[in-house]
Structures are given as C-alpha cells and as structure tokens.
Design brief:
By secondary structure, the protein is of the alpha/beta class. Strands 1-2-3-4-5-6-7-8 form an eight-stranded parallel barrel, surrounded by six helices. Helix 4 runs parallel beside helix 5 and helix 8 runs parallel beside helix 9. The longest helix is centred in the C-terminal third of the chain and has 17 residues. It starts with 6 loop residues before the first helix and ends with a helix.
Length: 284
Amino acid sequence: MNKPVTIADLFEAKQQKRKIAAVSCYDYTSAKLISCTDVEMVLVGDSAAQVMLGFGSTLLATMDFMVAITAGVRKGAPNAYLVADMPFLSYQTSITEGIKNAGRFVTEATAQMVKIEATEAYLDVIKGVSDAGIAVMAHIGIRPQSINRIGRFKAEATTADMAAKLISLADKMTCAGALSLLLEGTAAEVAEIITKSSKVPVISCGSGSGCDGQILILPDILGLDEGVSPKFAKSYSNLAEEIKRAVARYSQEIKAGKFPDKTHSYHMKLGELEKLKKLLRRKS
C-alpha cells in the first residue's frame, strides 16, 4: 500500500462497487507482510485472546493487551486503515468508559476506527463514541463476546423475523453514528439487503459475497490453525506443515552437530586467535 487508506477511500470503494479486502492480524511481523499487499483494512481483533494466548474465548482480552498489539500492528502496516477491537467490558459499563477506552486506541495506537460488538442496548455507546470524534464500526450478527449468554454460536438472520430485526438494527447503528458495519455469520441474502440499503461500508465475516468487503483472520488465510475452522474460513496456504517441517529440520541439525556451522558463527579477526593463545600462555 503506497499511501495511507482513509475512511473516505472506503466510502469511495463502496460507491464505485470495488470490493474491500480486510485481514485480522495481531502482530508487527504479520502486519508488515500484509502491508506489502493491496489489503486496505487491518483489524486487530480480540480473537487474539484465542489465537495468540490460547484462551477458549475472546473474553480474556484486556484493554492494555489490545492497545499494545494494536500499536505493534500499526508500526508494521503504517498505511492500512487500522481498526481496533473494543474488548469485553471496555464499553459495556458506561458511555464515559467506552469513550475513554476508544480514545486510548486512537491516541496510544493510532487506530483510525474502533469496533464495538453491539445490540440495540448499546446504541447510546455507539453515538457517544462517534460524537466524541472517533470512527466506529458496529459489529452485529454473531457476537463472540456474548458466548456465555448463548452457549454456542449459530448463523444469524436465517428466518424472516430474525432477518427483519437485524436489518432494522443495522439501520439504527448507522443512524447512531456508525461509519461501518461488520456482519458476522449472517445469512448471505440478508447481508446483501443490508449492504445495498446502507450508506456505510459493510464488511462480511462469514456473511456471503454481497457485502462491500470481506475479512478473515490471518491464521486461517495462511493455514496455521489445525483445529476446526468456521464454515466461512478459507485457507490459501498450508503453513502449519511448512513450519513443523522447518522446526523439525532445525532440531535435527542441532542434535547432529550441523548447526551452527562456520557460516552461521562469528569469528576472530585473522591472526587474533594466535595472539590470544600467547596471552593465555603467559598468564598460566
């Protein structure tokens, strides 16, 4: 990406019907590689709690952790449109707390937008954060932070009644000030209806091809996760096997005394070893 992507660029892409490519990643090294591609948007998701730390849900991601990794991703991808995920309890307690924490992502990590998993109960938070001058992406459909309430995830808006409610919620989110929507696990037909009626860019996470853009987490794209992946995830490589082979070869070379060799070691300057030996003999 040669120049910084702005919210205006995303709106222009929607208007011109150019699809937006988005990736969720969590570290400087990965972000630096992504920055060499034409991916416009990078989301630092609270799924880092699962992918990076091995927890069973996103609920254990903290503000300090999220701010730190978001800052790292920004360093790796300085020109991408950077979205930071508001973790559990960073906005649910009060509008004031939500604004304060959203502001941390902007001032400490230079994120351009924050993502909030939202129901109708949090419209005032969306409005408050937006009114404070911070761009908001409203995350609707499947909301991973609600796992303890629902027990397990299932596709959203698969019936007419559910669909009508989600379409209405999407409209309310944009009226409250959301400048983008993320639809997770939503029936493709409904996601397309929302996208066509919405004035803001709509990003799909497992919600079909009718949205303005698509997002997947980088480990899924690279084929790093060998566990059960969501139905909508697609791997474009199989780096898990490559990594295991590389580390196994490394271990074997160490055990066989092949690594490090002379090429991968530092050496004294010519003639200095003999001088050292003489010095040591004198001392002995």
